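Researcher: Please generate the 3D structure of the following complex. Treat every line as part of one assembly.
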Amino acid sequence: MKLKYPIESFALLFVIASDTLRNSLVYGSLFLVLLLCGFVIRDFCESLNASLIQKLILWISLPSLTYVLFNLVYYYILKEVITPKNLLLLLVSGGYLAMFYASGIKNTSKTLPQEITETEDTLWDILKESLVVYFIFIAAGAVREILSNGGLLGHTFFNTFFIANTFESLLSGFLFAGIGLSLVHYIINKGCSDRHNSLWVVLPIILLYQPFAIENINEIIGFFISAAVPILFIVSVQKRLTFSCTSQGIKKIPIELVSMGFIYMILKAF
Amino acid sequence: MKNNNKLTGIITLAVVAVLAVVIIIGTNILTKKENAPSNGAGSIDLTGYTNTGNIIIRSASEVKADDGSLEGYLVTVASKGFGGDIYMDVTFDQTGDTVKSLVVNEHKETEGYGSKITEEAFLSQFSGLTAPVSLAGTGNSTESAAEAAPTEAAPAETTETANETVALADGTYVAETKGYEANGYNDKVSLTIAGGKITEVVWDAYNEAGELKSVLSADGAYEMTKDGPTWQEQAVAIADFVVQNQSTDAIAMNDEGKTDSVSGVSISVNTFVSLVKQCLLQASPKSLQDGTYTAQGTESNGYTGIVTLVVENGAITSVVWDAKDAKGEFKSYLSSTGKYVMVEGNPTWKEQADALAAFVIENQSTGGIVLDEQGKTDSVAGVSISVNEFVSLTEECLTKAASGDTSSDDPGETPAATPTETPSTDNSEKAPGEIDGVSGATVSSTAVVDGINKAQSFIKDFVLKK
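Model: Done. Output below.
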């Protein structure tokens, strides 16, 4: 069955913003608002006949809204500035949200069978699955903060042997994205399908947060090498990592995201 | 129907938006502001910054006031200490010049010594201090400090050896052992100072009959080996060595008190070295200067001896003798925990070391400790271990105390002097940016200072130049 929540957007959020409970609450809540904005915009666009214009409106409005909403909240409520890299990733995430809604717009040049019109996603369909992701996302933020700081919301409750800053890092973000989304899929009883490609999630992060840097060669060449290596690894995982007896449970795990965490862990050693 | 759907969408959006704002404001109120999220807003991106050496900048973030204005920067830095990395949070003002606070989050320093870097007495010194900072009395501007302020005048040179800084009074000084130890001789050293320099050293020994070893040796009555140099020749050789070097610092001894530093000398020289030091002490200005003094020996049997001596109001108030192995574990600790056992039922090494220290405090010198050829003594009850190293190092500390030279032989962590934490130097003599290190924990204190200076250069050279 088709997933009715924007998995690419949420996967990206898991990686970049599930490091603390505060971040996951802020990013998650704002993204839920953006998700509903997208739904309302799509509904209003339905009166327009040209699907291309509908998609164009979504493609322009949702990343713009993401940019404006996050900046407004961070500037006026949280009194902070979002780092340029995170802002770029948020824009990409807004783009994936637009992609999610645009994929549901009917192509007006074709005559579609009646059953497809009838199975159009309703508000409740989208909200139901997105709320599950939202709560898992917040739980991931809480767990990661406890494991990295021994407390929540900046308050330290205990400092014991398992407290490690690694849980704040990006590689942990990938692992928790994989684990978190697999939990979501268990709850909603759906799995990833071929139409979802984890490269959409991995690529922007690799370009902005490279796992290693090469200092002794030209900066641009070094950038391309350190970006190309993890991409090659993850493509090889996508193409070659197969399971001979995959259970239904395994099939629901976004295995590339978990693998990406391990790839980052290995490459970070350099 | 479609209009109803649109209305539902708008209402849901409004409700969710209100809930989101409430959640965000609530989160913001409940979040402790000091701990800026490392991967979120407010954090400083370290991309492009290359960590080098033992000090690593782990994360950094801007510190904001309630009105959103920039108050300063929080840098989390890891600096290599004695037992491992010391993780600390340093907060600077917005110019990066002044340290606002210092918190040590994690460390593996020796309990009771280096661990004192977490105590308020040490940490509070940094609040409001202008960086780069340095340890008082060391005179060494650290790597980053030197980079940040290359035009600053270097502090007065304090790394000279004790003998070079001490103004020795002209005259002839004599020191000798007592009690005709195992070999039946008392050793005697006569040292002459002229023009502030050692001009002559004479080492001899006499027995109960009053016969001099030098004479017996020259006559062949005191023979060690048939072909090798006589005792007298060796005594002259090592005495000349001291005159030539103007100190005993270059004489490295093994556990038996023998040395390879002087050609042709194969006899035990620990007694000679100890006596020369006593002579030098006599030649030094009489009053001991307040401070903490440390002397470290050479590695022997896997351990390196360290003596820390505290002088307060011109008197020795504390002496701590300890030895550390290659892993940095102290013999006193190993002895106390039963990991370093000598003879079952006898006093432990730590107890014997404490007895010796108490003896020195009581007598205010090492003069009463008479050594035999093996470096052992009967002068202190219950002490059966070799104490030549202790005597030698304590005398070195006393020589330093005579000149007020608090510089350490070794940057390694040394046992803390008790009972009080005496500052290395008088506060009034501290230069701007100087702090008192933790007594007996030079490495730990230096690691903290270096970490702060690295954090400051990171703010200045990387963050503010961005």
